Amino acid sequence: MKAMVYQGPGNRSWQEVPDPEIIDDTDAIVEVRAVTICGTDLHILKGDVPTVEPGRILGHEAVGTVVRTGAAVRTIAEGDRVLVSCITACGRCRYCRIGMFGQCLGGGGWILGHRVDGTQAEYLRVPFADTSTYKLPEGVADESALMLADILPTSYEVGVLNGKVGPGDTVVVVGAGPIGLSAILSARLFTPSHIVAVDLAPARLEAAKRFGADVVVGPGDDAAAAVAELTGGLGADTAIEAVGVPETFELCTRLVRPGGRVANVGVHGKPATLHLEDLWIKNVTITTGLVDTYSTPTLLDMIAAGRLDPTAFITHRFALEEMEAAYETFANAQDTGALKVVLTR
């Protein structure tokens, strides 16, 4: 089969690799129907995730058809159409038992495209298939379901829920890429008074308006002044960091009001300064997190009921064998306007 293989920092190739095989009784083999590329894949290619070894198949998001299952798999069967989650869960360890699947101690967590071969391939092996896939209802399209593999639950759980967004709040989202836009979309479910999007790219600020931001702050604008004007000088109730660089994290801590929350979602490759000399007296709560995907069934129900439409994220479509072109398009989003690319069989 063909797959996108990481060859070390700055190097990748769409190449022939062996077909995956059942290793454990809890595994399933899935034929990929639709797959996407994540900003985390770009972080890996930059060398920001040194735990990913050369030779690893990239990717952690897919929709596919089950073609084979191990002897212990009970909830899915050959022919089922499934969402493959970015988080794998053993379902038995201490963390899985409390819904913190991202911290799984039993061999799961974020492993696809990280510690085991991932989804950007014609076929993949899914460990712990019963607790790491979601059978899809007939009315949910592959492309819609694919947005639930990572970006929507990530922004919803790590940004909106950790940030405790509530009715009437002022919410600032710093970074209007796919994760930031997901945070805007899911924050709207809680009817905040204002959603402010901060980004350097005019195209992404236009996208933020389409997704529900009512105030946008671009290059040359004063984010603190904009938030102060909306809040009578208090600051934001919740500031969501959706980039993953020191400057944007530190900006969030300056934009939040006393008693407010900073919810960090971005993947950081460098240290950021925590200005406790300013924050200690302000009763500010700072949260971080890897997505657990406990919200995936809820979000899937909302899509099936027509209450949530994530297809607006998709700006470019490719055939699966056009993986190299898809990476070029996604990696150069400032020029191409790419939000999410989808590759289909």
UniProtKB/TrEMBL annotation:
One family name in Pfam for this protein: ADH_zinc_N
UniProtKB keywords: Metal-binding, Oxidoreductase, Zinc
Family annotation (PROSITE patterns): ADH_ZINC
Annotated GO MF terms: oxidoreductase activity; zinc ion binding
Gene3D superfamilies: Medium-chain alcohol dehydrogenases, catalytic domain, NAD(P)-binding Rossmann-like Domain
Matches recorded under InterPro entries: ADH-like_C (IPR013149), ADH-like_N (IPR013154), ADH_Zn_CS (IPR002328), ER (IPR020843), GroES-like_sf (IPR011032), NAD(P)-bd_dom_sf (IPR036291)
Cofactor names: Zn(2+)
Similarity field: Belongs to the zinc-containing alcohol dehydrogenase family.
Protein name listed in UniProt: Alcohol dehydrogenase
